[in-house]
Design brief:
mainly alpha; DUF805 domain-containing protein; elongated; membrane
């Protein structure tokens, strides 16, 4: 076995490297966690709102879990980005580029697509991409363009319907104004 490859390290630590598929797989796991929290919230929040409508005073109890989940999400997003940057032999501080609107999107595309160093670099030996990471990573790769196509397929007809309805409302308003002018 090649001694220049890390056989075990924690994916939840900022130390070490992530290949492209590992990075995408761990981000997909983070997405699953977020979806699970969303489904859980869909069951819990309506019950909380019912108790609020019955006269109970609103509390921070509703918002504290959301804040905690948001902090966890941000933390691991940056941990995964730092590990991916280490694979590219770049400092983890570059992950702060995500904070710049629109530039962060292109930066994410870059770190998702750029090939990492094959051998040992400043941040250590390359990490072995586990089988489940390869599977989830490829699913993520397939889901990105598919979700973009589906979004466009839904958004364009919805926008066209909105424009059509807005034009009809505009015409109705003009007709109402004209009829009120004639009646005077």
């Amino acid at each position: 076995m090649n001694n220049n490859i890390q056989s075990s390290d924690s994916g939840l630590s900022a130390n070490g490297r992530f290949g492209r598929l590992s990075y995408l797989a761990w981000n997909m796991l983070l997405g699953f966690f977020l979806m699970f929290c969303g489904v859980l919230a869909a069951f819990i929040v309506p019950n909380m709102m019912t108790s609020l409508s019955s006269g109970a005073s609103p509390s921070l109890g509703i918002f504290i879990p959301i804040i905690i989940i948001y902090i966890i999400l941000i933390y691991f997003t940056y941990i995964f980005a730092i590990r991916r940057l280490h694979d590219l032999n770049k400092t983890g501080w570059l992950s702060l580029v995500f904070l710049i609107p629109l530039v962060g999107l292109f930066f994410w595309i870059y770190i998702s697509c750029a090939k990492g160093d094959e051998g040992v670099n400043t941040y250590g030996a390359p990490r072995i991409t586990r089988g489940w990471e390869k599977v989830l990573g490829w699913i993520y790769v397939i889901m990105i363009p598919l979700s973009l196509v589906l979004t466009v397929a839904v958004a364009i007809p919805a926008y066209q319907s909105y424009v059509k309805n807005a034009q009809m409302m505009q015409m109705q308003m003009e007709q109402m104004q004209q009829s009120s002018e004639y009646s005077e």
